Amino acid sequence: MRINLILPIMMRFNIFICFLLAGFIAFPTILYASQEDKIKAAYLYQLTYFTEWPKSTLSRDTLSICILGKDKIGKELAPLHMRQSGGVHIEIVYIERPIDASSCNILYIANTEKKHLSLIFDVLQVESVLTVSSIKDFVKQGGIIGFAIINNTVRLEVNYSAALKAGITLSAKLLEVASLVVNDKVEVKHL
Fold it and tell me: Which domains does the chain have, with CATH numbers?
């Protein structure tokens, strides 16, 4: 009788240990994803200092960072709402359609919008909007700033030609820290 009672307790203990180990294995992944979003949000904030828009496109007192699509980065960007950058307030705006991006200074395009990239770029063709995304090969597809994970580090990729076409000037310092710079189909890789 005693053996019958001990066996279920041992099975429950083993199941508990399996769940505990699974939690420890999954936790770093969750932690890393959260940390990755924080780093991307910090980069988006820093881009406001290393980017120059045509004066005609800037509001007198607000710089708009817009998010198109569903992405967890919005949670990390929330503390930036109404924070100052270069004497203007940052506004975080969620948009649902590419046409709404014309009033944005920075447009973060979520991975959920990957299949709509050509439409988004068509809509923004005549706008001075800094496009940013984590979509793979974003800058090679026409985006201006791409986030890439290289050796477990968030790195920037830049499409300098796309920035010029949008009338946006990127700081030389920004180009120096980029792991990849695309300029009229010529790629320059930095290590």
Answer: 39-189 (3.40.50.2300)
